[in-house]
Design goal:
Blueprint: H1 18-25, E1 32-35, H2 42-48, E2 56-61, H3 64-74, E3 80-85, H4 91-98, E4 103-109, H5 114-118, H6 144-150, H7 153-164, H8 169-182, H9 188-195, H10 204-220, H11 222-236, E5 237-247, H12 250-263, E6 284-286, H13 296-301, E7 309-315
Parallel strand pairs: 1-2, 1-4, 2-3, 4-5
Antiparallel strand pairs: 5-7, 6-7
Helix pairs in contact: 1-2, 7-8, 7-10, 11-12
The structure holds S-adenosylmethionine.
S-adenosylmethionine binds at residues 13, 15, 37-43, 60-63, 66, 87-89, 109, 111-113, 136, 225.
């Protein structure tokens, strides 16, 4: 399963909560569906196999390597399909360019594909040596190396605290700044060696995972992207259309949960105000009161699905 060379033929990713996501998403077999994080096309293929030939599918991913794999994986399907390399924060524009006004279903499967994590040259893994890169789209300019070598101690502290929920953020940021005065930090394992002495030995892997996650979120502006896409996504759905989002950490899931809860309510006035003055009307119905999690059966074959949380809504 692991791949370190970055070749398309080695693209591997097992779609997470796939049946659950597709069952929730699919309302019309001849509808218009958008997968905003199509990766190598895992979910998209399962969805497309259940659609009529007259259905339309739009797949988006910011990683050009993922799209090459998706093209290969989906080429035998005979429906109208367009795959586009872009960030999902530009959804309004992408739909306008494709001439689509309303859609029946939108899927967002956040985070990284196994291919991205396992390809050492992408720099996402703290287990493999590679350049400190972490860009989902390697044509963008900000790399993890730039963040680590050029950001101030205060800014690094904030990133580790907010995006990595790391208690020792200040100490870790100081250690990085000190190390940089001796030598630039250019590789993943160089960074790991600097971080390790400041982390509790029993929790080393989960701490490294959170710190790498923090850098990745900063490099790819992941939370800004998520905040930007949520209102665009609901605007794009037809009445009765559905949105499904799979998150992999609490920073994402919290935002999705709050946004969906807010959009499912008729009034957003604080409880101390006796009569509604905000005039907010619910725009969606919650399809998942609590987040769905992978079954034990799924976790047996895919440990990486462990942190997945799925939430879905239907547009009123
Ligand atoms: C978990 S993978 C998706 C896997 C896919 N659902 C499948 O089953 O094959 C997440 C994908 O989202 C892409 N991605 C993350 N943030 C994105 C964004 N803001 N815009 C577009 N693509 C994004 C990543 O490049 C990655 O390929």
């Amino acid at each position: 399963m692991t791949s370190t060379t970055g070749s398309r033929s080695e693209f591997f990713h097992r779609p997470v909560l796939a049946d659950e996501a597709v069952n929730l998403l699919l309302t019309r077999p001849d509808g218009i569906y958008v997968d905003l994080t199509c990766g190598g096309g895992g979910h998209l293929r399962i969805l497309a196999e259940r659609l009529d030939p007259s259905a339309v599918v739009l797949g988006i991913d910011r990683d050009p390597e993922a799209l090459l794999a998706a093209r290969e994986n989906l080429k035998s399907l005979s429906l109208k399909m367009e795959l586009k390399n872009s960030t999902f924060g530009r959804l309004d524009e992408l739909l306008a360019m494709a001439g689509i006004k309303e859609v029946d279903g939108i899927l967002i499967d956040l985070g990284l594909s196994s291919y991205q994590i396992d390809t050492a040259s992408r720099g996402f893994s703290f287990m493999k040596d590679g350049p400190l890169d972490m860009r989902m789209d390697t044509r963008t300019s900000l790399t993890a190396a730039a963040v680590v070598n050029e950001y101030s101690e205060e800014r690094l502290t904030a990133i580790f605290r907010e995006y990595g929920e790391e208690k020792r953020a200040a100490r870790i940021a100081r250690a990085i700044r000190e190390a940089c005065t001796r030598q630039k930090i250019m590789t993943t394992l160089q960074l790991v060696a600097i971080l390790k002495p400041h982390l509790p030995p029993r929790d080393i892997n989960s701490s490294l995972a959170r710190l790498f996650q923090a850098l990745r979120i900063e490099v790819n502006r992941e939370l800004e992207e998520l905040e930007a896409v949520l209102p665009q996504m609901l605007r794009a759905l037809r009445s009765g259309g559905r949105a499904v989002i799979i998150s992999y950490h609490s920073l994402e899931d919290r935002r999705v949960k709050r946004y969906f809860a807010q959009e499912a309510r008729d009034c957003l006035c604080p409880p101390r105000i006796p009569v509604c003055v905000c005039g907010h009307k619910a725009t969606v119905r919650l399809l998942t009161k609590k987040a769905m999690k992978p079954s034990t059966e799924e976790l047996r074959v895919n440990r990486r699905a462990k942190s997945a949380r799925l939430r879905a809504v239907e547009k009123l």
